[in-house]
Design brief:
Subcellular location: Nucleus
Radius of gyration: 47 Å
Family: Belongs to the nucleoporin Nup133 family.
Number of helices: 44
Keywords: Nucleus, Transport
InterPro entries: Nucleoporin_Nup133/Nup155_N, Nup133-like, WD40/YVTN_repeat-like_dom_sf
Strand order of the largest sheet: 12-16-15-14-13
GO cellular component, one term: nuclear pore
Number of strands: 35
Largest sheet: 5 strands, antiparallel
Helix content: 40-55%
Structural class: alpha+beta
Amino acid sequence: MFSPATKKSGFSARKNVALTNYDSPVAVAENRRPLHDSPISNRPATGTPSPWASRLSVLARISTVNKSEKGEPKYVAEFPQVLRDAQAMLLQNHAPGDASLSGGIDKETSLAWIICGHRLFIWNYLSPATSRACVVLDLPSITSENGDIGKKISHSNNWLVCVVNWDSSKRSSGKVVQQINSAGIVLCNKKTRALIYWPDIYSETRNKPLTSVVSVEESEGSYFPSDGKSISSKQRQQGKLGSSLARSSSINSLIAAAVPAKRHDCIAIASGSSGELWQFFCSPSGIQCNQICVGMLNISSQSSDSSTSVASKGYPRSLIWHSYFHSSDESKRQFLLLTDHEIQCLEIKLSPDFDVSKLWSHQIIGTDGDLGIQKDLAGQKRIWPLELQVDIDGKVITILIAIFCKDRATSSSYTEYSLLTMQYKSGLDITKPIGESILEKKAPNQVIIPKARVEDEEFLFSMRLKVGGKPAGSAIILSGDGTATVSHYWRNSTRLYQFELPNDAGKVLDASVLSSLEDNEDGAWAVLTEKAGVWAIPESAVLLGGVEPPERSLSRKGSSNDRSVLEEGRNLSLAGNIAPRRASSEAWDVGDKQRVGLTGIARRSPQDEESEALLSQLFHDFLLSGQVDGVLDKLKNSRAFEREGEINVFTRTSKSIVDTLAKHWTTTRGPEIISLSVVSTQLVEKQQKHQQYLQFLALSKCHEELCSRQRQSTQIIMEHGEKLAGMIQVRELQHIISQSNATGIDAYSGSYAQISGALWDLIQLVGERARRNTVLLMDRDNAEVFYSKVSDIEELFYCLERQLEYLISGEMQIAIQFRRACELSNACVTLFSAAMQYRSEHHLWYPPAEGLTPWYSKTVVLGGLWSVASFMLQLLNETNHLDDSAKLDFCSHLEVLSEVLLEAYSNAITAKVDRKEEHRSLLVEYWKRRDELLDSLYQQVKKFMEAKLQDYVEKNEVQNKDILRKLSARVLSIAKRHEGYRTMWSICRDLNDSELLRSLMHESVGPKGGFSYFVFEQLYESKHFSKLMRLGEEFQEDLATFLKHHPQLLWLHELFLRQFSSASETLHALSLSKEDSSISDIDEIDAGGSKGRLTLADRKRFLNLAKISAMAGKNVDYDTKVKRIQADLKILKLQEEILKLIPDGEEKQSMEQKLLPPVDLVELCIKSQNRELSLRAFDLFAWTSSSFLRNNTSLLEECWRNAANQDDWEKLFQMSITEGWSDEETLRVLRETVLFQTSSKCYGPESEIFEGRFDEVLPPRQENAEFPNMKDMNSSVETILRQHKDFPDAGKLMLTAIMLGSVSVVTSTTDDEGPSLMDS
């Protein structure tokens, strides 16, 4: 399709090659038939081997192709031997051109199939070679197209095949590669419309297939109503055998799906080239055929005359299940149908009626180019929608379009191929879309070939489209001549990559996508060839080998731009003319981890490659001579020390040493490969070479340079040694498991997995994941990849985290689950122990560890370890059917695994702290998992102890403690190492061992007091205050730190420590505390009573104790402290007096339970309108502080107003006039007023104030203000009194009371001082 005519002839010639099968390669070379006068015996040694030749992987190893080339197809799997034999027999018995094959790949099940002769061969092409079982089905004799009974159909390329996976409902959410255990096959012949159904090809008692032929009488069919309502089964026409249909009608497409809750029942739907749809209900009892005819108006041709509308031959073309709505438990399935001008979405009920309804349709070819392809443009002659595909999410629909055009300038005809991508309109409810025009263009039409040669309609209809492979957004187009072309829109242009293998690979039968083991990630393209097995197209091949589409015309009539024919021909076949090769150690460099940005390829600078090549050469010279002269200077000059981490040249060289692929391993054996000495030998050789590499770095002074400049690189190099040591121990462990399991096979799973157990399954998973992520390794065995790819051993833990359900299924017997969990746990511990031993033996080689995270402390490793540990916890908590000895052994495995996990967490947290990174979330996760593990383990210990005690007739407490002490020793050790204080406390409490408790408190010292602090908390919460205070005798500082948050007890401990001043401060603060502090602990110590809150009496008691303690301490400022305490005592006493004057009620009860602030007390005094309280309000100002005076000036003024209101000044004034008071009588009367007493209390010589002076804030008269810094210079007592209602008449009397009160007791005052004030 996408090749020049010269290249096409090569394909055409290859289609008619007929070869003969012989027993020896020599005979093959002598007897092969010529191919266009070019003998096949002269084909290059690098060509793709034919099926009868040696293994493809072996020949690929000896390929002379440049090994640095990476943009090429990679071999995945060869055909099963039985198929190769059948191919050879077919070639021997048929004439050239008659031995055609057909085949395909089912993406969901990874099953590949080929029809060779009269037999169907089915196998899982991703399964290991040793377990790649091939199912061979004989095609039955059925009614042929001409009605001849018993004649077998020989045209194998006329078959459509669908695989029905009966195990799909049991598959886990994780994308695990599992061997399909039950599957059905539906075959339909395109020409004869014969249908064959095998209910279960893997059944041991495989039944004979069921057959049927699609044929109906010419009668009215059922049509889809325009409103989209369901079409009932009664409206369908029943298919009948023996009737005839137009010879031109054939089957274009076939889809099948399992019926929920019906074992071995499926529904299949086929589309015919004459516009009909067929529905088949297949069950072991028979096949029921129903016709569902779509109205001819819905599939009308694109006639230029709009008044005519005739049926379009060859349509509908494509059927596909709508993947977005697929669920094995749903009772409905949606599928898409492609006609010659629109896409239709239909829904079928997977119920006994199997009703079909039309949901929506969208016209993709019409006059509106925004909806799809615009027709009737200049030069357009006809438009063919050829194939339809949906992405894995079901949201993007891709259609392959061919447009026949004519160039008016040159009168030449050509075909334009393009891809139309559609998506649901924004805001549309795609769960139930109904109507028309619900799609919109996702992007402009992607033109693949602007001007390709004109092909006939049969060739166009042979094209197929596949989507979903890497690079993301790419598509592969398959044509009937056996070519496969990958189209990828990259950097604003379309690029094409043509898959092609040299010489005798044959045609491409089908293409699919390697199912990725990652969520929401595409896999590489997989291609099924006619003779050379299955190949993969790496992402790098598409990106590096892709070329732009040719702009010239490739029509059979020629082109005016012939000067570039040869050049473009070379460009088109650039990616295809690269000979295949076997993956080498370079394969690791092209994995998905190397992708950068959109290119998918990590490109290293030439300088890096030169440095690495120089380092490799210098190391090689060292191995031969042992000399390192000038090595350091040469590497410095090559700038080898400039990169850090994984891309450092020293790190890459170390990685290449430990990851080298063995060239002498084979993949023809099963799990016994890992028990052979070849694996151990290879790993030991790697270890020896890596040790020599370290010696080379040390002798050349490169190690010293790396430690000072690239610590991370040095760390990675040393970790390669750790991983290699761990891999050696894992291999030994697997060998031991294989030997021990040889005498007893698992009752679960099958074949080699039964013998090898969970570790072998894990090895297969890790190897399979590596093969999927690095296409270059697809022809390697899983175990070979696992034991070779040492540097990525973290992948083992990734698979443990994501695929543990596959390794240990809930369907297994409990005993088997326990055993397999122990295997996995033992493998993890073995890896960790080997790494720790290597690190201990080579500790001098390691750089400073600050800020470096070990590989075993990475997130993926922590996740895998926790996945196993949590599963083991779940087994322990949910299972009671095993004997105690088995459970005890299981707990021992869990204890060791827990220790490894917690140690890994500890190192990860330390590294984050060193790097000053956020580590709180990781720390919380560590605490949570630590406590969960230790608590569960200790609970199991207690259960074991209870079980042991049942065996003893006489119960001895000492003996019980000895048993518990012995069983809990390992758990206690882990708890001590990782600050599992809750478990440590539980053990000490259950043992009632105070000596052990005190010993642990001394040993376990942490940042917040360690275990001591935890013990104090437990005793405090349990209200064992006497025990808590007695521990203070031994742990004085620790208890003092703890009791800072508990002042109710702190003062007692300070008195014990003879810290009297501190005790006084604590008691003083406690007495004035505003919180509702509980004193139940104090009461329990003192009298065993319990009260709810601190009462006024309690606070008074604390103040008196504080006073005594302050006097006992006799610090420098103890006098001031005593005065302050006395002032607080007076305030407390005043509150008591105020409460006595307040009527009983809820308000009074609430006041009695809490300490009121001075402001509230003053307001109560004012509110009471009591003469005595009005006067006492000023005592509160006197007993507080100067700051309180300054901050509450307005409140002080209010107190003066209240004091003035306590006497009837108008009455006093009238009496003074009427009675004619003398000075003595005036003084006597005024002494009884509140203003006089207040003035004497605030300004008199005998006034008592704790801090400051009243006249600093509020002087008696304005002219007497001695402090100019007052906030309000106009504020004074006189100013306040002038606002009084009686001041106009009795003002002089009021001021006289203020002035006499401030000086009345002063002996030096003259006699006329009073009258002068009165006269003023």
